[in-house]
C-alpha cells in the first residue's frame, strides 16, 4: 500500500467545468500539477484559454481549453462530442460550473430559479448523461470512472443569506448525485463535495466585506485554500477513493458543525 499510488492521477484524462477561474481553476491546477491531462470549459473564452495556457506552462500535466456555455443543452452536447473526438476515454468528470443569486424574499425573481436550477442541476445531468459512454470506457483499463459534483454546505443546511434558488439547486444536486451513484456503479463512482467558503468570484462580495467574521465563525478559523478542494478531488479520483460513492463530503473547515452548534 503506497501513498504515491493511492492518490495517483498521472496520465488520467479529466474534464473540469467552470475551470477558468475560482474553485474550478483550483481543481484543474491540482490535477495538472499531478500529471493529468485536464480539459477545462467555461463561457468566458479568454479566461478559459488564459488559464489553460498558464497551467500547462506550470506542468507537468497539460491543460486544454474547450470554451462552452454550459447553461445551454446544445453546448453540453457539443462539448461531449468534442471530447469524444479527441479522447478514447474520460477518467474523471468534475461538474463545477454554477451560479448564485441573492435577493430579499419579497423581491426574489422567478428568473433566478429558472437560471440556477438549469445550470446548477439540469445541465449537470445533461453533460453527465452525454459523457457516460466515454467515462464508462475507463473500465477497460481496470479503473472505475469518477464523477465529482461540486455542491455546497448551503444545500445541506439553510444559509443565513437570501440565496433561495442557490441552496435549493445545490440540495437537488446532492440528491441527483446519490441517485446517479445507484445506477452507475460499479463502473463509475459519483460523489459530491459540499464546499464551504472558498475564494471565488461567487464569494467575492461576501469575502471582501465579511471574511474575518466568516472565518472566525469556523472551527478552523480560515477560508478554504486551493489545496483543500484539490486534494479532495485527487483522493476521490485515485485508488484511495475507488470504494467511495453516493456520498456528500463536506469540505468546509467545520462550517456545518459550527452551524449546528448555533441552532
From TrEMBL:
InterPro entries: NAD(P)-bd_dom_sf (IPR036291), Sc_DH/Rdtase_CS (IPR020904), SDR_fam (IPR002347), Sec_Metab_Biosynth_SDR (IPR052178). PROSITE patterns: ADH_SHORT. One of its GO terms (molecular function) is oxidoreductase activity. Keywords: NADP, Oxidoreductase. Gene3D superfamilies: NAD(P)-binding Rossmann-like Domain. It holds the Pfam family adh_short. It comes from the Eukaryota. Belongs to the short-chain dehydrogenases/reductases (SDR) family. This is Beta-ketoacyl reductase. It comes from Kwoniella dendrophila CBS 6074.
Amino acid at each position: 500500500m503506497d501513498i504515491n499510488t493511492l492518490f495517483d492521477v498521472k496520465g488520467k484524462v479529466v474534464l473540469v467545468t467552470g475551470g477558468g477561474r475560482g474553485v474550478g481553476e483550483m481543481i484543474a491546477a491540482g490535477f495538472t500539477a499531478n500529471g493529468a491531462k485536464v480539459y477545462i470549459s467555461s463561457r468566458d473564452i479568454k479566461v478559459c484559454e488564459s488559464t489553460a495556457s498558464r497551467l500547462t506552462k506550470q506542468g507537468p500535466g497539460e491543460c486544454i481549453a474547450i470554451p462552452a456555455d454550459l447553461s445551454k443543452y446544445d453546448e453540453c452536447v457539443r462539448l461531449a462530442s468534442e471530447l469524444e473526438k479527441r479522447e478514447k476515454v474520460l477518467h474523471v468528470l468534475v461538474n463545477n460550473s454554477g451560479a448564485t443569486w441573492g435577493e430579499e424574499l419579497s423581491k426574489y425573481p422567478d428568473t433566478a430559479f429558472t437560471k440556477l436550477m438549469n445550470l446548477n442541476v439540469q445541465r449537470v445531468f445533461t453533460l453527465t448523461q452525454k459523457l457516460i459512454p466515454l467515462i464508462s470506457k475507463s473500465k477497460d483499463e481496470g479503473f472505475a470512472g469518477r464523477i465529482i459534483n461540486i455542491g455546497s454546505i448551503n444545500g445541506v443546511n439553510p444559509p443565513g443569506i437570501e440565496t433561495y434558488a442557490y441552496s435549493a439547486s445545490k440540495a437537488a444536486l446532492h440528491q441527483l448525485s446519490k441517485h446517479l451513484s445507484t445506477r452507475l456503479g460499479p463502473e463509475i463512482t459519483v460523489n459530491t463535495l459540499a464546499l464551504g467558503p472558498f475564494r471565488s468570484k461567487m464569494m467575492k462580495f461576501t469575502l471582501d466585506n465579511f471574511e474575518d467574521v466568516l472565518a472566525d465563525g469556523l472551527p478552523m478559523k480560515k477560508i478554504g485554500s486551493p489545496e483543500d478542494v484539490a486534494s479532495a478531488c485527487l483522493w476521490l479520483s485515485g485508488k484511495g477513493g475507488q470504494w467511495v460513492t453516493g456520498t456528500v463530503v463536506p469540505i468546509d473547515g467545520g462550517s456545518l458543525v459550527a452551524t449546528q452548534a448555533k441552532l
